[in-house]
Design a protein that fits this description.
It comes from Arenicella chitinivorans. By secondary structure, this protein is mainly alpha-helical. It has 12 helices and no strands. It binds fe (ii) ion (2 copies). The site of one fe (ii) ion (FE2) has 4 residues, from α7.
């Protein structure tokens, strides 16, 4: 089923993984402690950015919040990647991807390294990992091709969101250099994963989306995934740990904020959304009902 163009793209990605991939276990020089008077997360990428809530906070509060937003982001990465590896491992032998199948081993190898450094960072500098929130359960029995498609579609959405934060945090010179180096290393690997993800979706869509019902199920399931991933960016524990009052109120205010909803749809997931539209899926984003 897989096209020659797809095989060519994955051959290149495999070669790049071999030549550009790092051995993360030996790559980083882990500091004993990280200075807490520096940003660990770009102030422009915080969950309060683009809202009046940001202006209400002092610089000291923003720096404290940045620490815990970094921990939230890295916790989401490590737990999300564990789930991603698990789901991919469960289906990989059933896929008909030809030689491109080999790329999945590189993908898993790299995710394993990411999972390792994200959890190590959280434990070493924050003493904890924020626990995972509930993930959407597929209630219907899905056809195998549709299930395979959803596994990779969820990976694409998850990775595109992470990519936005890696870019913001790597490029911002106000962010602690060690945190920037982690974001940069992750960005480099994820750029290949995202190229693969968007491309493999097109391959899998041919067998998965064969009628209107398949498209409706995929749209429904992925829109739930979008909402879960969106809400996870507003973990009340990070507001609490930053010493801000009424964490739940802050969370709901930001979740419902039009500027935050627009950022998610029109910036963070702009390209991913376009890739889904191309294969016939129009996702429902948080706030779409207000349009
Ligand atoms: Fe990763
Ligand atoms: Fe990845």
């Amino acid at each position: 089923m897989s096209s020659q163009a797809f095989q060519a793209v994955t051959s290149k990605l495999i070669a790049n993984s071999v030549s550009q991939g790092i051995n993360a276990f030996a790559y980083f020089d882990w500091p004993q402690t990280l200075e807490e008077d520096q940003y660990w997360f770009s102030p422009d990428a915080l969950s309060v950015a683009h809202t009046d809530k940001r202006d209400e906070l002092t610089e000291a509060e923003l720096i404290r919040l940045a620490k815990w937003e970094c921990v939230n982001s890295f916790s989401l990465n490590t737990l999300g990647e564990r789930e991603l590896i698990e789901n991919m491992t469960n289906v990989m032998e059933q896929l008909k991807l030809g030689d491109a199948q080999e790329y999945l081993y590189h993908f898993i190898n790299e995710e394993n390294q990411h999972m390792w450094y994200f959890q190590k960072f959280c434990r070493a500098y924050a003493g904890k990992i924020y626990p995972s929130i509930a993930i959407p359960v597929e209630e219907k029995t899905l056809s195998k091709p549709l299930h395979h498609f959803l596994v990779f579609a969820r990976i694409v959405l998850f990775e595109e969101i992470g990519h936005y934060f890696n870019i913001q945090n790597h490029k911002d010179e106000r962010v602690h250099p060690f945190v920037r180096s982690i974001n940069e290393a992750h960005y480099n690997d994820e750029a290949r994963h995202i190229t693969f993800g968007r491309r493999v979706l097109r391959e899998l869509a041919a067998d998965a989306l064969t009628n209107d019902e398949d498209v409706a199920i995929a749209t429904h399931e992925l829109s739930k995934t979008l909402l879960v991933n969106y809400n996870a960016l507003y973990n009340p524990s990070m507001y609490r740990d930053a010493g801000l009052e009424s964490p739940m109120k802050i969370r709901s205010y930001l979740i419902d904020h039009p500027a935050r909803q627009s950022l998610y749809k029109n910036v963070i997931l702009k390209s991913a959304n376009a890739a889904f539209v191309k294969i016939g899926i129009t996702l429902n984003f948080p706030g779409d009902e207000n349009d």
